[in-house]
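Researcher: I've got a protein sequence and the SMILES for 2-oxoglutaric acid. Could you write out the 3D structure of the bound complex as structure tokens? I'd like something to compare against our soaking experiments later this week.
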Amino acid sequence: MAEAEAVEPRTSFRENVERMVDRAVEAIGLDSGVAAAIKPCNSVIQVTFPVELQGEVRVFTGWRATHSTHRLPAKGGLRFAPEVCQDEVEALAALMSYKCATVDIPFGGAKGGLLIDPREYTRKELMLITRRFTLELVRKGVLSPATNVPAPDMGTGQREMAWIADTYKHLYPEDINYLAAVTGKPVDQGGIRGRVEATGRGVQYVLREFFRHPEAVGEAGLEGDLRGKRIVVQGLGNVGYHLARFLAEEDGARVVAVIERDGVVVDEDGLPVEEVRRYLERHRGLRGFPKAEFSEEGAQALEMDCDILIPAALEGQIHSGNAGRIRAGLVVEAANGPVTFAADEILHRRGVVILPDSLVNAGGVTVSYFEWIRNLSHIRFGLMQRRHDQLRGMQMATLLEDHAGIHMPAHAKEGLTRAPHEIDLIRSGLDDTMRLAFQEIREVLEEDNTVHDYRTAAYVIAIRKIARSYLDVGIY
Ligand SMILES: NC(=O)C1=CN([C@@H]2O[C@H](COP(=O)(O)OP(=O)(O)OC[C@H]3O[C@@H](n4cnc5c(N)ncnc54)[C@H](OP(=O)(O)O)[C@@H]3O)[C@@H](O)[C@H]2O)C=CC1
Ligand SMILES: O=C(O)CCC(=O)C(=O)O
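Model: Sure. Here is the predicted complex with 2-oxoglutaric acid in place.
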């Protein structure tokens, strides 16, 4: 980020998002008053609170920005990081609104952040800090199942979500829907299978759909499918790790480089993603990883020759200072805001295709939506139909074999008679959501001659939906 700031000193993350939105507003020809109502955050709460740790009082600052409430609850992750600021959470909250609208998830947009380096604290200390932060957010009215529901983001995961849910439950034991106050919880604490890897899984589904469109693939200077594609991933955290593993293990792609905070590991034959991750967790860095070449020049590795570049760490990583040197044909924004507005324009001029964050990383909030619904309905998906569907499949198989005399191969019979587990339904819902969103964006790109890139197409779709919801009920 340091280089980005040096090159584009006056453009903040929030301003970058707003410029991208302006481009879409212009393409739609949207009324400027409606655009002005949509763009800013509805509210931003800043909290400052003390926690006593090891006999010493420490003071923490956090934010919850709510961008839109045209749909409720407003939804979005909580980030624990040493660089969080108000501008950042506002930008991320806005992205949540556009993301949810792009993939048709009926939520408004929000995001929160706590200024902290989680690596400096023990588990117990983090629990105290998270619980106290939760209390502050609840007191300020920005955390409840009906109005504002957090989820994991950078620096947080299932563990923090479990603490948040438990704190909320202690505050409101009479709220029968307390579990729905936060998503991304452990499965045993009201979470849903598939949420941990959902964002990475969603990126995989978007990429698979992209490669089902040969003309789109050609526009990125690529051909064929994901098999053998050379991929560079920045950030092997929750999103990057699952994504890299799925692409390597299930789609036959080659992850040739992984960039982390302390540098990059490279292997042209494909890195063993699982081993890299284990090493990273154990050593808190990639230096010394024995099975690949290590270099400290992580930022430069973004410019490596590859087919697909996947920034999955921080915002502002591809900026006007390096956009001219990016050699990938396809940039896939698994992180939020990894490409600045200026870089976006440079890459577009150079013919580099960008699949934007608001589409690409929407898998997380999509499965959060499934979790939230499951918590509200107090029943797991498929419970009522599973055996019924299996019985019907078995009857069908019997009918075909015994009465129509058709011999069914074992795999066909297994497919027909297998009762789906909840995770199968989650994956099916996620796949459908990501495919349909890609197809809708592709349609705009092909049919609307004022739109020339995926990001603007995604924003056009999102802004039209949000604007419609404002206009239907009137601005109030
Ligand atoms: N989690 C989710 O469900 C979703 C996340 N996102 C977005 O995806 C991105 C990543 O989130 P997530 O995977 O959850 O976060 P994590 O904290 O799990 O992982 C982020 C990874 O990036 C690494 N990293 C930090 N700084 C740098 C750097 N300068 N260069 C290279 N690597 C770096 C981190 O290392 P270290 O641990 O040392 O800090 C960590 O390994 C964020 O933009 C987030 O907003 C989007 C949608 C949903
Ligand atoms: O799962 C969610 O509700 C939100 C995930 C998130 O923060 C994001 O998509 O950026």
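Model: Residues 1-6 have pLDDT under 50 and may be disordered. The CA atoms of residues 30 and 36 lie 10 Å apart.
Researcher: Great, I'll pass this along to the crystallography team.
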